[in-house]
Amino acid sequence: MPKLDDNATQSITKVIAASSLGTLIEWYDFYIFGSLAVIIGHQLFPSDAGASALINTLAIFAAGFIVRPFGALVFGRLGDLIGRKYTFLLTLVLMGGSTFLIGLIPSYSSIGYAAPILVLILRLVQGLALGGEYGGAATYVAEHAPPGKRGFFTSWIQTTATLGLFLSLGVIVGTKNILGAEAFADWGWRIPFLLSILLVGVSIYIRMKMHESPVFSKLKSEGKISANPLKESFQKKANFKMVLLALFGATMGQGVIWYTGQFYAQSFLENTCKLDFNESRYILLWAILFATPFFVVFGSWSDKVGRKWIMLSGMLLGIIFYRPIYQYFIDATNVGEFQKTELVSVSEPVISSEYIEDKADSVITSTVVKTLKSGGTFKEISVQTIHADKTLAAEERKISFADVTLSSVTYWIIIGLVFFQVLLVTMVYGPIAAFLVELFPTQIRYTSMSLPYHIGNGVFGGLVPFIATLVASFQGSTPLSGLWYPIGIAALSFVIGAVYINNKGDSEVMD
Fold first, then answer.
1. With contact defined as beta carbons under 8 Å apart, do 269 and 283 qualify?
2. Where do the coiled-coil regions begin and end (predicted)?
3. Is 83 in contact with 20 (CB distance < 8 Å)?
4. pLDDT score at 85
5. What is the CATH code for 8-335+407-500?
6. Is pTM, for the whole model, over 0.90?
7. Which member of 34, 239, 280, 431 lies 3.0 to 4.6 Å from 307 by CB, making a disulfide possible if both were Cys?
8. Domain boundaries, the chain
9. pLDDT tens for residues 73-101?
10. Closest residue by Cα to residue 20 from 145, 161, 129
11. Where are the beta strands (DSSP E) in 251-375?
12. SS3 (DSSP) at 377
């Protein structure tokens, strides 16, 4: 195994630090939106939109993933023609600018449906930028690393996606706690978007001082760069075969494991289990904190034992354990079950009323907080609608629950189960950058690896929250019905990867 001298180690440490910081900030920018989907939905759509506001907001969130492959094609081609450094400098500027502008867009109450349309446009710009960022950063680091250390060094880039999510959650929770829930829901949600411009400025300054990849520089000096990276990547049969294998045998399954374990877990706990806003995010923050070091563990291990079975094992464990895990989430947070335990106290009701003039209805809302012997609490919300006309008055009453908090034991069990899901993320994601880089030749590497990564991770994976939430809303479905999408995709990818990928450190493929 090649050994790095002190100067080389110092050099690659700077390369990893500079690449990782920029990529972390891009992921932060990209994921703020998903972390605030419920609040943003109330801002972008009419107040009476109900559940459709969340589904429409998740659809806008998903749109950013759908265009990531197009970003991979555009910026991958630029990266293979003009170099890695300046291409992902450009993607950083686009991402930071569009994220900042999302924080400035007026709400639906001010400009109507222009609000979600403008956010959708900026979300598409974000997706295009991210489509060009990851491939450049992973390629840049891999081309500085010696062959026997690629899994280890590129795994640091792999941590940035989860750390970007961690940073976005931390900024969101901190801002909400400082401003208070009401101010945060009204205007404070914009602050995490606006802060991104400062982070991007720092990263641009650092990246401007970076040098081009030595492998690409050598190729360019020898006049061997590709004249048409797109044509060489997708019209040459041997290379296109590698693109398809990377997509269907690895990145597709990796993508659904990634977004189920981190985004859908949070969405499910908040929207299905009705956990308190902060509680659901603290759970994910703890899980990410404990699991993140394993990106480097599994990336380094893949240098020794190969990439294949580490990635496929993560997929298989998700296939087996997702339904039992999410069933526990439901059982542990079911308010009906809570009510079987002894109540310690019930707060005085907080009553509000609203008159709906066009329907001549009066809506009376009563909210009480119930504290249980187990240590958990929840809000019981009773809504009475009084219909009035000249001759008839009728009364309707609906009861719902919200802002569930958990007993200490249940809280840590759920953290453990989310940690397990993020651990699976580290298994599938830690080795995959080295796997993809080593599949393709240098002159078309940026283009060839970016496309399957962003289709698998961005489209198949990024659609998990939207598709799973949509499927679970169908008549006759159960809260677990949405899990069949990630389980099915992971199962298909597992079978293809098990049959066609060789378990070698250099990711060679069977003929």
1. yes
2. none
3. no
4. 66
5. 1.20.1250.20
6. no
7. 431
8. 8-335+407-500, 343-404
9. 887 777 677 666 677 678 888 888 888 99
10. 161
11. 343-346, 350-356, 361-372
12. strand
